[in-house]
Amino acid sequence: MHPLIHRFVALVALLTLLGSGVGVIAGSAQEATPAASPTINSRYVPPPELPEGAVAEETLRQQLIAAKATSCADLELIAGILVSSGVLPQVPPMISALTGMPIDELEARETTACQQVGEALPDDQKSIAQLLNEANTAQWLVQIHLGAMDHVMMQNPTYRPIAAQGCFAAFFEMHNLNIETMRHDYLSLISNPTLEKGQALGQFWTEVLQPHAVAEDATLWDLARSVGDPNLTRSADLVEAEHQTIDRGIAAYMETLAAVERGEAEPAALVPLAEGLRIRTELHFGKEEVTVVRPLQQRIDDAEFRPVIEALDSEIGAWLRDNGWTMEECAG
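The structure corresponding to this sequence follows.
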């Protein structure tokens, strides 16, 4: 496959991941009256896949134009979210801090990539290199806007209501404690990267998050499959598989941490790995709750869900109780 196509596919895949993360986390944060379902929007229909083999230059050009247009539209969507959520004034200085660039330079890059002004060439007259540069710039702008939004939201984190009782409540409270601790250790690391702070976050990954996953692997997925709903089974399969992705992220973090401990890398090298792993973990929690645990909450009783909590208590119960968690609501 043409190397530009590889780059384009990677660009679209990253945009899809970031976009889905915002959507799922936002969805899991809301337990109030559900919003009315929108009609199908062609912008959100999956893009057609290019066939294998050589790709004509004109086809590549059209794909790059479409990729750029998608990223530019996402920038507008993000701007609308920033306005409606009331955090817009905090975002420009955060973006400037993250990139080390003044806001006017960032705005100039956005104008060049996403608008045709003055004597600028229309897209159909630009070279493939120009289109790829502009598509990459638009995608980069999406990334830094989402990154800034994430940093702003982390300053005042919110959690969705538990909306459960008994063993199900204990599960959601367990997730909240994981998120609270992970965010605290992550913010501590990125504010002033040191070996000790990197080790603290590594300890959370290996001594809390991974044993938590072990407990779910032993109980939760088979319980979901036992209901006999093919949709729930498919969701359980997909969310279970994400544990492998998280494990690979933890392995990469711990490998870099070992290099820091040996003096072969700076603690700052841990920051991008920690950011990606934290975001992936929170997204995983949200998907797990919305697509597996909430449906189970409607289909089985508290006693049937209790083995999940007992397994979690066996793996990380001491840590949970040290942080105020209790099994009293889930007593047999």
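Residues 135 and 220 are 42 Å apart (CA to CA).
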